[in-house]
Every structure is written in structure tokens, then in C-alpha cells.
Specification:
By secondary structure, the chain is mainly α. It has 13 helices and no strands. Helix 4 runs parallel beside helix 6 and helix 6 runs antiparallel to helix 8. The longest helix has 28 residues.
Length: 277
């Protein structure tokens, strides 16, 4: 290939690239067109197309007249597309760029909702997964966002739902601690079980798990020989849960969750992970 022909080929390629770039630049639509397309797509349930138009809107008109609303719509479009981490990122961006907006409550709510549902995804809805055994990190993040919403915007239209979700999160966190307490009982780590149960009583006193937590507290205190603490736990249980199955017909504490097992040295050393076989 001659040098002249090579130069001609290179020049042609540059011209082709420049032409494509100019053509692409010419295809940028007006700001209002992107916004209208996004709204129409959302109204028809086509959230992929809506997200695409909102991304174009942010790319070409980051400070335009529709910028703030586009950021809000992007949170919603990503959430509807099950892109929960993307929805949370979009909410983060909105809160960072618009701290004085009248829609901060919505962004806080949606960020919390995205975190809340990251632990309750489609697999969790349709498969037998015990949520009490899962890492509660996302739930704690959701709780913080809902708490901020209620603190800063108590009259927000999103406040009632946020409040109910906070109760659900509280119950899940309590059940998670109770799950750990049961595990420690199986491993005969009774002090650790007592600590987990006590954490539930002290931090989640209204959760459904509190009754069993008090029972575990009372029984582990009895086993550990801390008699006064055991009596206090039983008294608290009888006051708040007089119909508990832990009491017999004479209101005597009769729980027997702690059962000593004959375990081999291997089982003890491995915390029961390999059994006694």
C-alpha cells in the first residue's frame, strides 16, 4: 500500500468519524421533547424507555428547566425497573444537588424504600428464605432514611407508610437477634444467648420477639446462676405476657429451652458445625 493511498484512507476515516459525530450532534432533541417522551413512557409503563430519555435529559440539559423533576422521575423509573441500587444512587444525587427542594421528603422516602426492598427482592418473595437470617445492613439504612423523613417532615404524605415500614424493620431486627440467641443456645453458649436476648428486650421492647427474648433471658440467667436477674426477667414476662406458654396454670415459670446435650469433643471444638459423626 502506497503512502499516498494510506494518507487518503486515514483522511477518509477522519472525515467519516467527524461526519458521524456531527450527525449525532444534530440528533440531540430539544429538552422538552426528552421530558415529554419520558413522561409518556412512564405513563404507559415503559420504564426502560423513560429512563433512557431521562438520562439523555440529564446529559444534554443538566441545568435545564426540567432538571430537578427529571432527577425525581429517574429515581422512580429505576425503582420500577427493579434497579434498586440505581434508584438509591439517583436519590443520593438528588439530595446532594437539591438540599432545599420541597421534594426532599420524596427522595428520602424512595431512598429508604429502595434499601428496604433490597432485602426483600423477588427471590425472597417467592422462595422460602428466612429474612431473620439475612444481613440487616440494608434494613438499618432504610430505617435511618425513614427516621430522617419522620423527623424532618412529620406531616409528609409519605410519613404514614414510612412509619409502618419502620415497625416492620424493628420487628425483623429483633427477630434477627432472637435467631442468633437460639443459635447460641444450640451451641451451649448461654452467656452469648443471654446477651442477644437482652439486646432485644432493651432495644425492641414492642417487637413480637420480645416475649421469647424474656423467656431466654430468664432461663439463661437461671442456668448461669444469676438468680435475682432471672427473677426480674420472669416478673417482667408475667407483667407483660401473663398468658405466655412459659407459665403453668399456677403462673410458675416452666420453660425448658435449655437442654444439655452429650456432645463429643469434636462437636464442642467445632461449635457443632461438623456434628458428632
Amino acid at each position: 500500500m502506497s503512502s499516498g493511498f494510506r494518507l487518503l484512507l486515514i483522511a477518509s476515516l477522519f472525515a467519516l468519524v467527524a461526519g458521524c459525530s456531527s450527525k449525532q450532534q444534530e440528533e440531540v432533541l430539544p429538552e422538552e421533547t426528552y421530558y415529554d417522551n419520558a413522561r409518556k413512557a412512564m405513563n404507559s409503563g415503559n420504564f426502560n424507555q423513560a429512563e433512557q430519555n431521562l438520562d439523555f435529559l440529564e446529559t444534554y440539559y443538566p441545568f435545564g428547566r426540567y432538571a430537578e423533576q427529571a432527577q425525581l422521575d429517574l429515581i422512580y423509573a429505576r425503582y420500577q425497573n427493579f434497579d434498586l441500587e440505581g434508584a438509591r444512587a439517583a436519590a443520593d444525587r438528588f439530595l446532594r444537588l437539591n438540599p432545599q427542594s420541597e421534594n426532599v421528603d420524596y427522595a428520602l422516602y424512595m431512598r429508604g424504600l429502595a434499601s428496604y426492598n433490597l432485602d426483600i427482592n423477588l427471590a425472597g418473595r417467592y422462595l422460602p428464605i428466612d429474612l431473620s437470617e439475612r444481613d440487616p445492613g440494608e434494613q438499618r439504612r432504610a430505617f435511618r432514611d425513614f427516621s430522617a423523613l419522620l423527623s424532618q417532615y412529620p406531616d409528609s404524605e409519605y410519613a404514614p407508610d414510612a412509619r409502618q415500614r419502620m415497625i416492620a424493620i424493628r420487628n425483623r431486627l429483633a427477630e434477627l437477634e432472637l435467631h442468633a440467641a437460639r443459635y447460641y443456645i444450640r451451641r451451649e453458649a448461654y452467656l452469648a444467648a443471654n446477651n442477644r436476648a437482652r439486646y432485644v428486650v432493651e432495644n425492641f421492647p414492642k417487637a413480637p420477639a420480645t416475649e421469647e427474648a424474656l423467656i431466654i433471658m430468664a432461663e439463661t440467667y437461671q442456668f448461669l446462676g444469676v438468680k435475682q436477674a432471672a427473677r426480674d426477667a420472669i416478673a417482667l414476662l408475667s407483667t407483660n405476657y401473663p398468658d405466655s406458654d412459659a407459665f403453668d396454670e399456677n403462673m410458675e415459670f416452666q420453660s425448658n429451652r435449655i437442654k444439655r446435650e452429650n456432645r463429643s469433643l469434636t462437636s464442642v471444638v467445632t461449635f457443632g458445625l461438623f456434628g458428632d459423626d
